[in-house]
Design a protein that fits this description.
By secondary structure, the protein is mainly α. It contains three helices and two strands; from the N terminus they run αββαα. Helices cover 80% and strands 5% of the residues.
């Protein structure tokens, strides 16, 4: 079981190193494998993560998001509270129904666009298949022509071999 645990640890460590590098690279940082001798029995090469000076590091960016998100949610809730205070429940229902209708229309418009794109893809697919068939037929006809030429050359070579053997017999008999 200790080997299994070691293997599992190694797999998780490789995954962690790989994903940390991806995160650092995507956010403008850099990662590289450490260079130098490893301590005895160390299985993994340690990673060195570099962050450009003057840029927010990952933790600072997360803190910034945590600060901005509640403020945006609070602003949104305040706007809803103000609009609810100024309208009656019937007006609220009408507003919700109007928004749902607008959303339904938007979804239907997008479905029409998707259908149009789908038909264009089908048309392009059949057009491409036609072109592929034309090219395939042209290649096949050229292959047949080359095969017939190779057969003719082979026939001529066999005739040449017969002639050469007769010539060699004639020279040997003289």
């Amino acid at each position: 079981t200790s080997n299994y645990i070691t293997v599992q640890h190694n797999v998780l460590s490789e995954w962690l190193y790989k994903n940390l590098c991806i995160i650092y690279n995507e956010l403008g940082g850099d990662c590289a494998a450490a260079i130098g001798p490893l301590p005895e029995n160390q299985a993994h090469i340690p990673m060195q993560l570099y962050w450009p000076e003057g840029q927010l590091n990952i933790m600072e960016k997360i803190d910034q998001l945590q600060t901005a998100l509640p403020l945006a949610l609070q602003d949104n809730l305040e706007l809803e509270h103000i609009s609810n205070a100024n309208t009656s429940s019937d007006d609220g229902l009408k507003t919700i129904k109007a928004k749902m209708d607008a959303l339904s229309i938007h979804v239907q418009e997008n479905n029409v666009k998707v259908d149009a794109i789908e038909s264009k893809v089908v048309a392009l697919s059949s057009d491409m298949q036609g072109k592929v068939d034309v090219v395939q037929n042209a290649v096949e006809s050229k292959v047949h022509a080359v095969e017939s030429k190779v057969d003719a050359v082979q026939h001529e070579l066999s005739e040449l071999k017969v002639m050469m053997s007769k010539l060699m017999e004639m020279i040997a008999n003289q």
